UniProtKB/TrEMBL annotation:
Species in which this protein is naturally found: Agromyces tropicus
InterPro entries: Cupin_2 (IPR013096), GPI/OXD (IPR051610), RmlC-like_jellyroll (IPR014710), RmlC_Cupin_sf (IPR011051)
Keywords, sorted A to Z: Metal-binding
Record's protein name: Cupin type-2 domain-containing protein
Residues of the signal peptide: none
Lineage: Bacteria, Bacillati, Actinomycetota, Actinomycetes, Micrococcales
Domain annotation Cupin type-2: ranges: 50-116
PANTHER family for the chain: CUPIN TYPE-2 DOMAIN-CONTAINING PROTEIN, OXALATE-BINDING PROTEIN
Superkingdom: Bacteria
SUPFAM superfamilies on file: RmlC-like cupins (SSF51182)
Length: 130
C-alpha cells in the first residue's frame, strides 16, 4: 500500500439518514424547488433542484465553496462575477468559491437545474442583505 491509498473496512450497517429521501420531504414551501442538505443524510454535498418559470431565478449571492449547475431542461442565463453565460439542456457550469453569481430562466418554458454545492451544508450570502 502506498501513502496515497485509503483503506476502509466495509460495513453492512447503513448510517442514520442514509437512503431514499422522498422528493416532497425536500420541497421548499409550496413551490417546485427542492433543497437537499447533505449533512442530514450522510453526504458530503448539498443541492437545490430548481424548477422555475420564465423570468425566475435566485438573486445575486456567493458561497465559501464552489457550486456546479447542471441544466436539465430550459435555458439559463448565468452570471458569474463579470461574465454572463447562456446554458441549455445538458450543459454544466461551475462557479468558484467567493464569486458573486445568479441565474435566471431566459427561455419560454420551465427551467430545471440541479445546483450542486460542494459542501455538506448550504451557506449563502445574498447581495441584498446589506
Amino acid at each position: 500500500m502506498n501513502a496515497a491509498e485509503i483503506t476502509l473496512t466495509p460495513t453492512t450497517t447503513t448510517p442514520d439518514g442514509a437512503g431514499i429521501v422522498p422528493a416532497d420531504a425536500l420541497r421548499i414551501g409550496t413551490g417546485r424547488t427542492r433543497r437537499f442538505v447533505g449533512l442530514d443524510h450522510g453526504a458530503g454535498i448539498s443541492y437545490f433542484f430548481v424548477d422555475n418559470e420564465p423570468g425566475e431565478g435566485p438573486g445575486l449571492h456567493w458561497h465559501p465553496y464552489s457550486e456546479t449547475w447542471v441544466v436539465l431542461e430550459g435555458t439559463a442565463e448565468i452570471t458569474m462575477g463579470d461574465r454572463r453565460l447562456v446554458a441549455g439542456p445538458g450543459d454544466t457550469a461551475t462557479v468558484p468559491a467567493g464569486v458573486w453569481h445568479r441565474f435566471e430562466n431566459v427561455g419560454d418554458g420551465r427551467l430545471k437545474v440541479l445546483c450542486i454545492h460542494a459542501s455538506p451544508v448550504i451557506v449563502q450570502t445574498w447581495a441584498d442583505e446589506g
